Amino acid sequence: MKGFGYLRPGSVEEAAEAFAAHPGARYLAGGTNLVDLMKLGVESPTCLIDIGRLPLDAVEELPDGALRVGATVRNSDLAAHPLVRDRYPVLSQALLAGASGQLRNAATTGGNLLQRTRCPYFQDLDKPCNKREPGSGCGARDGVHRDHAVLGHSPHCIATNPSDMAVALTALDARVELYGTEGSRVIPVADFHRLPGAHPERDTEIRPGELITGVLLPAARAGVPSAYRKARDRASYAFALASVAVVLRVAEGVVDQVGLAFGGLAHRPWRAHHAETALLGAAATPAAFEGAVALELERAEPLRDNAYKVPLAHNLALEVLNRLAPAPVAP
Ligand SMILES: Cc1cc2nc3c(=O)[nH]c(=O)nc-3n(C[C@H](O)[C@H](O)[C@H](O)COP(=O)(O)OP(=O)(O)OC[C@H]3O[C@@H](n4cnc5c(N)ncnc54)[C@H](O)[C@@H]3O)c2cc1C
Ligand code: SF4
After folding, report:
1. Cα 214–chain centre separation
2. What's the rounded Cα separation, in Å, for the pair 10 and 8?
3. Which atom number of ligand 1 is nearest to the Cα of residue 72?
4. Which of 4, 18, 22, 154 has its CA 20 to 30 A from that of 171?
5. Does any ligand 2 atom lie closer than 6 A to the CB of residue 149?
């Protein structure tokens, strides 16, 4: 591992200034992804700016009923928070489906959103990878790609986003709060991660030096029935082959609120806009769910070895939609 500096700022402003003053710096949160990548030589920051002691570790209810989750709230604390379990079960379930208890105790909300892909070519300095080294090629496209993307990929990169939490946040219409030396801004989680296009080296819309300060969970989704389901190779400690987050409210047999997002299928959590549009205002029937999910997944472009993901995602989504929909009232 190469040498690096270490700073522990006392405020958000100091952190952003420290980043600006140290080209090649990285923020350090739980370190569960960044430190691993440093050991592999994929990341070699000049300076680590430790944000672990910034006052960003609270979950607070806002006057409008939204919840604000600080960027350094640990994944295990967020999953266990009574307001999250009660109002946003999909988020709690997604967090608990990720990693292991020990990792969740260290991993943070901001770090989870910015974790890098688990593509093995990205993690191996001897292999070509446009994300790690732009212009070097994509080893996975003609190589081992069973775990890779079936939606929204490009000739330059077929990686998937590994976060479970981000899939739930996408279905919940959550927003990310950012702070940089040029000021603060808030963007929807659904727009935060990018598709690879010609620039897979950029995972998200975050600007250099910007700090995630928190995530906002909207009041409008609070208490709406929701659930997360994940398919993986092992029962724990494994990333999603495919996953689904669903938020669904049915009134008098008609869908009046829906959020649907897939994980494990694309370079970003895949917001199922086409399925959502088809379902909103439709009768909440198994046939309507089937049609809407099929409409979304007809966009899939599977690769040689990952076509299995399409029926897998389809079946996961149908199971959760049908489970969340109230049983029809007998005449
Ligand atoms: C064996 C293993 C299994 C795992 N399984 C899963 C899984 O099944 N599902 C899943 O979702 N995840 C899984 N993970 C990933 C884990 O969830 C992430 O490593 C973790 O969430 C990252 O959070 P962190 O706080 O440790 O981030 P760090 O490693 O500290 O940082 C990650 C990145 O985010 C940046 N960063 C961190 N916080 C901020 C901030 N506030 N503002 C700006 N930049 C910031 C850092 O600079 C770095 O680039 C697994 C990890 C391991 C090691
Ligand atoms: S899929 Fe993306 S991350 Fe993986 S080798 Fe190709 S360019 Fe790199």
Report:
1. 14
2. 7
3. 41
4. 154
5. no
DSSP state of 221: G
Q: Is 94 helix (H, G, I), strand (E, B) or coil?
A: helix
Atom index in ligand 2 nearest the CA of residue 138 equals: 6
6 - beta bridge partners? 48
The token pair at 4 is 């690096």
Q: Which residues line ligand 1 (CB under 6 A)?
A: 26-34, 36, 51, 71, 98-99, 103, 106-108, 110-112, 114-115, 162-165, 211-212, 237, 239
**Could you give the CA distance from residue 9 to residue 211 in angstroms, rounded to a whole number?**
13
Is 138 in contact with 132 (CB distance < 8 Å)? no
CA atoms within 13 A on the CB side of 305: 11
The tens digit of pLDDT for each residue in 192-243 reads: 999 999 999 999 999 999 999 999 999 999 999 999 999 999 988 899 999 9
**Could you tell me the distance, in angstroms and rounded to a whole number, from the CA of residue 108 to the centre of ligand 1?**
7
pLDDT tens, position by position, 61-101: 999 999 999 999 999 999 999 999 999 999 999 999 999 99
pTM, entire model: 0.98
Q: For the purposes of burial, counting CB atoms within 10 Å of the CB of 124, is it exposed (0-12), middle (13-18) or buried (19 or more)?
A: middle
Nearest 5°: the CA angle 207, 213, 215 is 100
Q: What three-state secondary structure class fits 142?
A: coil
